[in-house]
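#structure-requests
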Amino acid sequence: MKGRPLYTQDGTLVTHRSVGPAQYGRFMIDVFEEWVRRDIGAVYVQMFDTALANFYGEPGGMCVHAETCGTQLALEHTGDLYSCDHYVEPGYLLGNIKGKHMLELVALPAQRKFGQDKRDTLTRYCRDCDVRFACNGGCPKDRFATSPYGEPGQHYLCPGYQDFFHHVREPMQQMSALLRAGQAPAELMTAYAKQDSRRGRNDPCPCGSGRKWKHCHGTEPAR
């Protein structure tokens, strides 16, 4: 690739510096395996908070994994208002707040359609997915891949998302059950500690990396 590509939402450019779907899924699983053992209730990871909310049945805090979007607008110093901070481009300019109140611009049919299209333009493969309720297809700006059904408009990181949400399904369901019982999700760390105490050092790590427990998440954290 030569030169500097334009920062627009058209095209399917992925460079050698781009994170791949499998890499992304592996990274999120590795972080989750550390967090679920040591950091629930102490360290807040937005991706995990949003996943828990979606598994619990409540809206999460990340527009990326919300069913619809359109509330994370971008306001430039000139007063120009855009549909989203990922879409600061001429085609998504709603207007200028010097001429119209922001509430009027947000209520425009174009902006409502922008937010609803996140749900309405999902591929059939995505709509059939068993973890769609937690993922919701990711951000439309990254839907430039082809689905296994041969459809355009699939999220580039879809395989990584699937790996992550399938991996966290059981602990997310357990934390949801704790919340419904009026207990803190952090109590799950006690259950993990009991499981880990029964795990042999040479057993496979439950994160699915293929490494032994002692060489993976069974190592003591650096002090």
